[in-house]
Amino acid sequence: MHRVFVFGTLKSGFPNHEGRLSGRQLVGRFLTSEAYPLVVAGKWFSPVMIFEAGVGHRVFGEVFDVDDHTLGKLDILESTHLASGYKRLEIAVESVDSGDVVNAWVYMKDRDIIDVIHTELTDAYHLDPRYVPAKDRV
User: Fold this and answer.
1) Is 120 labeled as catalytic in the residue annotation?
2) pTM of the model
3) 18, 52, 78, 90: which one is catalytic?
């Protein structure tokens, strides 16, 4: 099993959760142990956590336990195989409820591959009304 920290559209109740993480074991609500920049970026107005530890805020999200198959499907969704895609990295996250720290995979981007940033830094993603789901992208 793999622990995955999700901070955007993969969180419970968000557009990419259903069919990808629904039915998977929710470990709980977590914050990144370090600060990271979280913004809405790109032509699809997607949430992006930027790989710059120590910048921004501790980011709120959820941790799920997933199997190899689900992790592979998440890699495809996050385009880890493309130069413009996300990188899957392991970071420390802290439980909001217990304070326990665990390591989890997270999908982040390097700032230099982000074409446009639409928002200021934030600590939590709330669905941006401009977000374009994958099924609607042309």
Assistant:
1) no
2) 0.96
3) 78
